[in-house]
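Why do we care about 3D structure at all? Because function follows from shape, and shape follows, mostly, from sequence. That is the central idea of this module. The next example makes it concrete: a single protein chain, its amino acid sequence, and then its structure expressed as tokens.
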Amino acid sequence: MALTNSQYDQIMRIYQERQHHRNHILRQHTEEVYSKIPAFQEIDDAIRDASMNTLRARLSNNNQADEVSLHDRIEQLRQKRIKLLVANGYPENYLNPPYYCEDCKDTGYIDNKPCHCFKQESINLIYHQSHLTDILSKENFQTFKLDYYNNNHIDSEYKTTARQNASNAYDKSIAFCKNFKEQGGNMCISGGTGTGKTFLTHCITNQLIEQGFSVIYFTAFQLFDIFQKATFHKSAAAQEDYENIFNCDLLIIDDLGTEFSNTYTNSQLFLCLNERLLRGKSVVISTNLSLKELASVYGERITSRISSEYELIKLFGADIRIQKKINNK
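And the structure:
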């Protein structure tokens, strides 16, 4: 996501705090081991001396055999160090830096490019500042309630009750999140107004963010607004958002069909869905439109992608928003 300078500084402070915390833990562990195993410090001193001698040999262009011998000596000391730890009841990695992210070593960058953890921190920050985190704390799998779906009336098309159908949708969404790392996948959640589509997308968003995946959540209007700004205004911030739309682990498009549709938006939607399919990236769509209506608005190419590559879920039943208002009275 595009960040302001203050947002960037805020994220970098998170990494600084992680580094301070890591160093504090490592210092505590080291002092503990030195206190309980006096010989351990002697090994560390020997490793330090051998490392300095290796550096001196390299700078003075000494015989390579001397440098190799010093490397072997250091490796022997390291192995002795591990055996001593284990023999005294410690795990062999007890004095390894406890990184929050092993990939970037808590720097936020790999080869001068933002690490996946930095991208997720950016998304989390923007969600927090847009108050979406408040929504996700209230709308998640733990707060999903089947009570709002009628358990008596059987739908003639689906041959099941609204509650059983919603329960199936819930189970499929849980499975989608559980298998996301290995399988990825795409979903299209359709249904009338107030049937819980957006709530279910919030559940998926919350679950996958907690699992450490980069998830970007846009209403259809917001998505097409970014496409327009990146294409016509050449905005750097919009361009970064545009790239993130194609690169994040999961893109959620909420309320597809509520935006103003035209040839440009249709072509951009096809580009987005098709490109993410080619990259093996996942999409979840929620919409009030049926497949037939989607074809009418967006054309057969887009509908073909959705019908063939997406798991289709439909929610039906009475408007939950109205039910909540009635119950609150």
